[in-house]
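From the pipeline queue, job 12 of 40. The input is one protein chain; the requested action is below.

Action: predict structure.
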Amino acid sequence: MSSIVLLGATGSIGVNTLIVAKRYNIRIEALVAGSNIDLLNKQIAEHSPKIVVIANEADKHKVNHDNVRCGNAAILTLIEESQSPLIVNALVGYTGLAPTLKATSLGKKVALANKESLVVAGEFIDMSLITVIDSEHFGLWYLLNDRPLSKLYITASGGAFRDWDLAKMKDAKFSDALKHPNWSMGNKITIDSATMTNKLFELLEAKWLFNTSNIDAVIEKKSIIHALAEFTDGSTTAHFAGVDMKLPIAFALQGEVTEEILPPVDLLAMGALEFLPIEATRYPIWNIKEHILNNPHLGVVVNAANEVTIEAFQNEKCSFFGMADMVLDAYDKFGDVKAKNIAEIIEIDKEVRAYANAK
């Protein structure tokens, strides 16, 4: 890969992508960031992008670059103008969908760390152009071969409240939900991990990527096993790797990697492994797992309601379990919708957000 455009440069995926790009002498054509201008300026100094896009016009004067653009529309224009064959999309939330659609419509490959793109509109995205940057989907891809599959599994950490008493979870605060046991991630994905919405989204992604609804998730507390493949002959293989996103990023950028990116897992230091079921009493969103895997077009409903409810939880307008109540209510309310195209996806998203906001 000669050059890339990086969307979401200052998040954890963006930071790790720049480390990997530097290692392989991949040029950074453009950086897209939100409001972390201090880190962005350090990245500009180190990687010398031609173009920079930020979220807010008010921050423009703070950016140390002579070609700074602002807003979501500027991201789409940048993708259109770019010479790079690969767009790394590490934007958070629904905002990431339009850039994925724009890039794939132009025949560009997308290294996708934006779950919402596939959750909301997987049916309308050319999967041949998508490589997902995610330890679970990377693990599944790594395990797959020509043998006939029986079932795929991804693993979950269990999130911040994995070991809490259920009674105590009712009073959990936004700050509590951000204390993830294994990872340091952005606010939204950490909240989604606590509710298990993140894992539901990953199952939907896997459905589109691997063309199967025969997929499930289990809790593996150490986050050492990321994925398992069960074959029709009765054997099961597992993907072990350290907790580090540079490995899937390296494959997404390079296609094939033959040198050590991470140190091998130390089996003796790791000790015992334990797998636990994901229970709907602790993670109420899990009540719709089977239904949504068979009706993946409803991902747009769950995503829109979920983004509204996270904001409500952060602003103390609903409880932790209240988030799931609101999402499941919207899922029931909009259960009959089915978009025929992207325009209808956008309309459904607006309607669900309006409904959830009014609750």
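Job complete. The chain has a mean pLDDT of 93.
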